[in-house]
Amino acid sequence: MSTDTKKPDIRDIETFLYDEASLLDRPDLDKWIEMYTDDGTYWMPAIEDQEDPLNHISIYYDDRVLMEIRRRNFVHPRAASKDYKVRCSHIISNVRIESITDDELLVTSNFQCVMYYNNKQTLYAGKYTHKLVAVNGGFKIRHKRVDLINCDGVLGTIIIYI
Amino acid sequence: MSYNDTDIAALITPTMIHRRVYTDPLVFDLEMQRIWGKAWIFIGHESQVPKPGDYTTQTIGRTPVVMVRDKQNDVHVLYNRCGHKGAKLVDKSCGTVGGGFRCCYHGWTYRLDGKLLGVPHMAGYEGTGFDKEDPQYSMQRLERYDTHRGFVFASMDADAPDLRTWLGGAGDVLDNLCDRSPEGEVEVAGGILRYEHDCNWKMFLENLNDTMHPMIVHRSVVDAANSYMATLPANSPRRDEAEIIPPFGASYENFEATGITGFRYGHHYDGGKSSIHADYTVDPDYEAVMLKAYGKDRTQEILTFNTHNTLYYPSLTIKSAVQNIRIVRPLAVDKCVVESWSFRLKGAPDSMLQRTILYSRLINSNGSMVGPDDLTAYFRMQQGLQSQANDWVEMHRNYGSDEDHGDRLTNVGTSDLDMRSQYAAWRHYMLGEAA
To answer: Which one, of A37, A66, A44, A2, lies nearest residue A135 by Cα?
Structure first.
C-alpha cells in the first residue's frame, strides 16, 4: 500500500456510487459510460464466486467496445426488446472500502434494484464490487462486478446494466 | 373440450398451423405425453459425470430424471423418484451421491444403477406382502437410453427406434461438433445459462432455421456494432465481436443460398457448405493441432462443414461451428426455459472455448443484444395468437418444391422446410403417422 495515498472520505465514494446508480435509474447510458475508464469493464457473473469471465459464461461481461455497441443498440428504433420503457430504482448500502493501493480503490456495497420493464416489476439484489481510480479530483470506474444473489437461477431478460 | 385424433389432425395442414397448437393447455398436455413422452430427449453429456456417483438432473417434459455413472462406469438414466413415497432422490442440477442414492424422507437407499438396497426397520414389513426384491420398489430406469459421441439421450418409449436410426443424417452435425476436436472428443465446460421464455416451447425451435427474421429482428445490434466499429481506426486489433455480430444482418439472398436440409423425426439444419459462421478467423494454433491430428484434407473437410443451427427435435439444438448447444424445457403452454451450454474441444487451445463463451454471451445470454429481441417476437406471438380473428399461422414459403433425396429433403435457406419438417414429426408423435 502506498504511504502517500490519503484515505478517501467514504461519503465521497458513496456519492459517486449514487451518481452512477442514478444514471442507470433513468437509464442514461451515454453519461454512464463516461464514468468508466477507457479500459473499464462491467461484469455480471453467472455463478457464485466466479473467477473467470473468459472461460466461463457470464450474464454480462462488457469492455468499452461492447458498452459502446450496447449504448447504440439501446436507443435503436428497430430494437423490439427496447420498445418498452425501462425505469429502475437502485438502493445502495453497506458501502465499504476493502483496500487501497497506489492507483485503485476496491469498494464493495450491497444493492437492491427494482426494474420496471414491459409491464413487469422485477427485484434484483446482490453485491457490487467497484474498482475505482482517482481522476481529476474525482473517480472513474475501472471495473464493476455485479453479483446477483440469484445469478445461477432461471432468469428472464435483463435488458440493461444493473 | 378434449381432443380425439381427428381433432388433432385438423390442427395442422401442409401449410397452416392452428393457433391452439401454441395456446391451448390441453394440446400442451398431449404434447408432453406423446412427443416428450416418446421422442429421444437430450439428457446430458458423459463428461458431466466423470466419476461413479456423479449425477445431473433433468426433466423430460414434467418427468424428473437423473443421469448417473455407476461403479462399472456405465451411465444410466433413471426416474428421479423414490420407490417408497415418490420423493425425488436428488434435487440439485448436478452433484455426487458417492456410493448410492439415499432418500431424504425415510432413508431408503439405492445402488447407482437404481436397485433398492436398504429399507430401515424392515421388521414392520414382515408378513405384509411387501417384497424388497420386487423391482417395482427400485428406482426405475428410463425405457431407453443410449449415447452418441458422449451425448446421452433417453426415451420413455420402449418401442422407440434406436438412437442412431433416429439421429439419421442429422447426426453428421453432432459428429462434426466432436470432430472439431483434434482428439475427436468434447466436454461440457464453462457453465450453463438458464433463460426463462414467456412463450410456447415450439416458438423457440421454429426460430432456429427461420432465416427470414435475422435481418429484421437483429438489425439493431448489427447497426450498433457496425456504426461503432466504423469509428475505430483502421489498424485497430481484430475483434471476434466484429465477426460474430454482423452476419446476423446477412441478406435474404445470402440466407437463401445456405439451404435447409430436413430429416425424419423433425431434425434439420441450415447451412452446410456455408453459414453465418463460415467466415470466422481460424486461430493458427488451433489449425496447427487439427492439421497434426487429421492431415490437410480431413481438416479442411471438418472445418468447412458449416451449419448454423441444427435441431434434434424436440429437445436439442446445436451449433457445431461454435460448439454450443441450447436445450428447450417446456414448463407450460406459454412458458419454457432455454438453457445454453458450451463445449470444450479436447486438445484445442483455450481460445476456442473462449470464443464459444463469447458467442453465448453475445447471442444467447439474458443480457445479450440478440436473444431478448427474438424473445420479444415470441411473446408477442404468444399474446397475438389469443386473437380469435384468425385461427391460422401460415408456413407456405417454397411449399411444393422440397427436393426429396431419400433420407432427407432440401430446399433454399429461406424456405419453410424447417417448419414442415417439425410438423411432420409433430404429427408422427401425436398421431402415430409414419416419420
So the answer is: A37
Copy the grid coordinates of residue B30: 398431449
The total number of structural domains that make up chain A? 1
Cα separation, B336 vs B198, whole angstroms: 7
Residues B236 and B315 grouped into a single domain: yes
Q: How many domains does chain B have?
A: 2
User: What is the CA angle B35-B36-B37, rounded to 5?
Assistant: 90
**If we measure between CA atoms, which residue out of B270, B267, B249 comes closest to residue B258?**
B270
**Same domain, yes or no, for B143 and B50?**
yes
User: Considering B148, B180, B197, which residue would you say is the last residue of a domain?
Assistant: B148
Chain B residue numbers touching A57 (CB-CB < 8 A): 190-193, 340, 342, 357, 360-361, 365
Is residue A153 included in any domain, yes or no? no
Q: How many beta carbons lie within 10 A of that of residue B5, not counting itself?
A: 11
Give residue B397's domain range: 168-431
Q: Could you give the CA distance from residue B5 to residue A11 in angstroms, rounded to a whole number?
A: 70
Interface touch A69/B228, C-beta < 8 Å: yes
Q: Which of B142, B141, B137 is nearest to B117 (CA)?
A: B137
Q: Is B165 on the interface with A (CB under 8 A)?
A: no
> Chain B: residue nearest A44 by CA?
B367
Distance from the Cα of B128 to chain A's closest Cα (Å) equals 45
Check B228 against A54: CB less than 8 A apart: no
Whether B199 and B289 share a structural domain: yes
Contact A55 B190 (CB under 8 A): yes
Reading chain B (435 residues) residue by residue, the pLDDT tens digits are: 799 999 999 999 999 999 999 999 999 999 999 999 999 999 999 999 999 999 999 999 999 999 999 999 999 999 999 999 999 999 999 999 999 999 999 999 999 999 999 999 999 999 999 999 999 999 999 999 999 999 999 999 999 999 999 999 999 999 999 999 999 999 999 999 999 999 999 999 999 999 999 999 999 999 999 999 999 998 988 899 989 999 999 999 999 999 999 999 999 999 988 888 888 899 999 999 999 999 999 999 999 999 999 999 999 999 999 999 999 999 999 999 999 999 999 999 999 999 999 999 999 999 999 999 999 999 999 999 999 999 999 999 999 999 999 999 999 999 999 999 999 999 999 999 998
- A125 part of a folded domain: yes
Mutate to test the interface with A, among B215, B245, B366, B382 (most CBs of A within 10 A): B366
Residues B245 and B356 in one domain: yes
